[in-house]
Amino acid sequence: MGNPKKRRIPPGRRCTAKISSGKRRCRKPAILGGTVCETHGGSAPQVKAAAARRLVELVQPAIAALDKALGSDDINALIRAAQVVLDRTGHGPTSKVEILEKFRTQERDALFRALDAAGMSEQQIKAFEVAYSGGGDADTID
Fold first, then answer.
1. 3-class secondary structure for 61-116?
2. Could you list the residue range(s) of the whole structural domain that residue 45 is in?
3. Does residue 107 share a domain with residue 82?
4. Is the domain of 11 the same as that of 21?
5. pLDDT tens for each residue of 26-64
6. In what ranges is there compositional bias, type Basic residues (predicted)?
7. Which of 24, 74, 103, 116 has its CA 20 to 30 A from that of 94?
8. Together in a domain, 27 and 53
9. Measuring CA to CA, how many Å separate 12 from each of 4, 24, 104?
């Protein structure tokens, strides 16, 4: 991979100011919602406020577009829109893994309690636990 500072900035995200010589356009990225970088005025409070207003104005159209995609017959658009909604509401791929792991832990604990209640010996339960967790050969437990 290349140097992250050398990444190409899309033309619409690039600062619109000219460098001091006036011949070339600034190569820095514009602030989010703005048209200039921090060096060329993007750090001024009024510029930050205007950029924030522009970003807020994009929320409703974005929600409308997601709503339209969720009602679409195009399965790819539907899946992508659902992923965006889930990611933005804290239910992205990592939370799915955490929930699945929590479920597996609860399921395993309930299973071992049931085996104990059924009268299995501690040795049999340990053997079953090793086999269930994939942690080796159940026949090797003392």
1. HHHHHHHHHHCCCCHHHHHHHHHHHHHHCCCCHHHHHHHHHHHHHHHHHHHHHHHH
2. 1-57
3. no
4. yes
5. 999 999 889 999 999 999 999 999 999 988 888 888 888
6. 1-11
7. 74
8. yes
9. 19, 16, 47
